[in-house]
Amino acid sequence: MRSRPRHRFADPVVDRTYRDRREAGAALAARLGGYAGRVDVTVVGLARGGMPVAAEVAGRLGTPLDVLVVRKLGMPWAPEVAFGAIGPDGVIVLNEYADRLSDGEIDTVVAAERAELARQDARYHADHPAAALSGRTVVLIDDGLATGATARAAVEVARRRGAARTVLGVPVAAPDAAQALASVADELVCPYRPGNFDAVGRFYQDFRQISDAEVHGLLG
């Protein structure tokens, strides 16, 4: 039986922005200090935006770093609105927006995202084999939590791969998504959950897109 979920949030503040994902990673690492130097911990960044944050966390904690590809499933007419997410090993999670779609519409989006997931995963792990997660404490890192769909998929992948404990770390999160994910992961660590949340990118001065090459370089 899993241990009771825990969550660690900072007190809400009026406004806060991170300079970039590296600064966000430093703030997150300060909250994850209890995992520093532990031989049973692996830090896993969600591709692509979570990887610079995860690299900073792993470097400060002195833990191995890997990448996990999870893909948002966007509404066909509004791709920015997620009706779920997919991950490796056949993982798929759906939310209430999926009820607005036919099975055929869902299947079309899933097929396209599965193809992109496979492409990214093959590139990132071409010369960096995926880390074995069985029996380990897996610290999953993303650059923010909006709907929580991709984070749910990531937690499920880690569990299917045998993780003994899942810790989800995000520098900023929508309060409702944070509350929901606190009961999904074994532990949720979030330094900032603003009441005026509208999009992850609003809380970064530099929120540029991360390339495949940058992800590959961070693993190297």
TrEMBL record:
Domain Phosphoribosyltransferase positions: 25-177
Taxon lineage: Bacteria, Bacillati, Actinomycetota, Actinomycetes, Micromonosporales
Keyword Glycosyltransferase: yes
Gene Ontology MF term list: glycosyltransferase activity
Record keywords: Glycosyltransferase, Transferase
UniProt-listed InterPro entries: PRTase-like, PRTase_dom
Organism of origin: Actinocatenispora thailandica
Name of the protein: Phosphoribosyltransferase
SUPFAM superfamilies reported in the protein's UniProt record: PRTase-like
